[in-house]
Every structure is written in C-alpha cells, then in structure tokens.
C-alpha cells in the first residue's frame, strides 16, 4: 500500500494549453496507509489520556458528593444509552459522508461536552445531573466514532494489517488507563479538577490536528453498496438486515450480547466497590485502574506483534471465557494485590477478543457498507449494556449491599466467599456475572454457525489488497 498520497491539481495555461511548472498553492501532501494510521493513533493516545484523567477525577468527585453506586452507574447509562439509540442513523451517515469529517465531528462534540463541565465546575454550579446531560450529548455523537474509525481503517490499511491496527488502537485505549489515574491523582492536588478538564480539551485538539494531516480514502462502490441505497431510514436499517441474513455473524453477535449484558453488572461497580471496601482510598482505586491499563496495553502490544490466532473465532471464544474468569476473581479478591492481579488478567484478553472480532468483520463486510453494518453490529452486541448499567446501581445499593452486611440475609450464605461489610455485595455481583460469562464463552463452541463463521462466509476483496505496501 502507498504510504503517503500526493494530491495535486494541474492547471492548464489558457493560451499555450501547457501545464504550469509552478503552483505552490495547489500541491498538498497528506499521509495515508500505516503512516497515516500511526499519526491518527498518536493523536488518540494523547486524547484518550486526557479523557481517562477527566473520568477518574469526576468519579472521585461524584462518589464524594453522593456516596452511592447508583449515581456512578447512571453516568455510564446516560452516556451509553444515547450512543446505541443514535448508532443506526450514524452508520448510514458514515457511509454517505466523508469518514474523516465524521471522526472530527465526534471529537468536536467531546470538546464541547468537556468545556461545559469545566464552565459549570469553575463557577461552582456543577451537579451530578449535569454529568448525565453532558454524557448523553457526547454519547450521541460518540455513536459515530467506532463505526467511522473501523471503516476508515479498512480503507487505509491492507487486510494483513487489520490485526496490527486493532492492536495499536487497543494499546492506545488501555495505555491511558496506566498513567491517567496516577497522573490525575497527583494533579488533583496541584491544579484541581478544572485544570484536568482544561488538559482534556487540549488533548482533543491534538487528536483533531492529527486527523487534519492524514488522508482517509473513500471506499469504491460495490454491488452491495448500490443495492443498499435509499432513504435515510432504509439505509439505517440496512445493517440489521445484512447481519440477519448472515446467520453466522448474527450468532456471533449474540455471544457478545450475552457477555455485554453481564459485564456491566460488574464493571459499572468496580470503582464504588473498591472505594467502599477501602474506605474511599483513591490510591488503591488508581492502582487497580492502572493495572487495567497495563493489562490492556500489554494485550494490545501482544496482538499488534502477533496479529491474533489464525482462527480468529478462537481468539473470541477463549478470550471471552478468560475475561469472565477474571471478573469472577475480582469479586473473590479482598485486598489490593488480588484486585490488581485479577484486573490485569481480565483486561489483557480484551484486545485479543476485539481484534479477532474486528478482523472477521472487516474481512467479511464490503468497505462501502461497513458504516451501516458496523453500527448495527454495535447496537445488537451492546443493547443490553444500558439496561445492566441502569439496574446495577439500584441492585447494589438496595439488594446486594444490604444483604451482605454482617446482619444481612446473604451474609451466612455467601460471606465465606466474598466477605461481609461495605462493598461485599458488589463483589458478589462480580462473582455471579463472571460465572455466567464463563458458560457463555464456552457455550459458543456448541454452535457450528459460531464455530465455523470464518469458513461459512467469503472474504470481500478490498482496494487495499490490490496495492503494494512500501
């Protein structure tokens, strides 16, 4: 694949009909291929660091003023639910619009949301419900991000680089969790939440600047793309029809649906569980979140070098099983060391799962319909997550936590397993979600449509495959 693209416009001399030799205002150089992708990746590393620092700081702030798991769970719900609602329309628009523009639009929305929170906090007016509103706004525009980035990668790099690109993106995502908690904890005492929010705004500008200097090729129109054209509503539903007609992809998504229904019962409560069990020790929380970042970054590096298993479905099913084993271990842990080790183990496999899944979808779905198909894919796989987020907080505060107090009904039944007292009810929720998730991961092998997905569906032939990589 070409590593950089030279775009120019030759103007003809009106009298001699000869091309002019000089026109320095016309010639532009924009990066594409793995070089262009690497520039975007660097911008994302910086941007995600700022976002993670903001998330850590606001989590501490929200817990200190409410002391309830429900409040933190609702922040996640109001951010995630609009993402899913907007996703089908976002996918249709991604396939209609320039994909680089769509990625920049998502970043601009995130900047706006952060600046509103900064203004409210600086004036002493920030309340917990403000995080619900700004989260919903950024979440709605965030619906464009994953399908747009995924579709852009398909046209920027060749199939042989899909695993590497996915590994790099996972490394960027999780690397931020290594440094952000510790850095945010230090900066909270120096520049405060307002300073951290200001840094976050700056990092978003860096990410947008990276997009400005790269070129994202628009996909060639395929027969599938031509057949899918129509009204916005018809194109918004196209991805669902496409997936439903390919039973193997649909069955694979149901596996992710089940795991994504279970995981939020646990991970939505990770921060309040640790804070409750440690007496609001932000240092321990930062250590566990850093372990999550290290696990994800190491997993992303391994994927980037290795490229994932030859049979990608094994990377998905075995990976999901091991992730849910890790969730169970987090619930069983009762001290920072066990939480840290279990968190590392759990998140290490997520890049391998996502990279294996991404490679299957990118190779099976034609590039010019990937926006719609990937949007539908996201909605089907994650539609249960908002429900879990909505239920996790109230179940923890009103059912599991009271039951696991020393005098609660559950203390005698499960006290030997997770202990009793503050946070033990949320620990039990981790154990239950992990045990059920193990059954889902292993159960995927019982269905031939999932087991043989790579053989049942043919690969598409992309433009990137027909070019020579420098």
Short description:
The protein has about 475 residues and is mostly helical.
**Rounded radius of gyration (Å):** 23 Å
Which percent range describes the beta-strand content?
under 5%
| Total number of domains | 1
Q: Biggest β-sheet, characterized?
A: 2 strands, antiparallel
Strand order of the largest sheet: 1-2
Q: Which architecture would the CATH scheme give at its second level?
A: Up-down Bundle
Helix content: over 70%
Query: Mean pLDDT, nearest integer?
Result: 80
CATH class: Mainly Alpha
> How many helix segments?
21
Shape: globular
Could you list the spans in which at least 5 consecutive residues all have pLDDT below 50?
1-29, 462-470
- What pattern of helices and strands is seen along the backbone? EEHHHHHHHHHHHHHHHHHHHHH
Query: What is the CATH homologous superfamily assignment?
Result: MFS general substrate transporter like domains
- Pairing-aware structural class of the strands and helices? mainly alpha
CATH topology: Growth Hormone, Chain: A
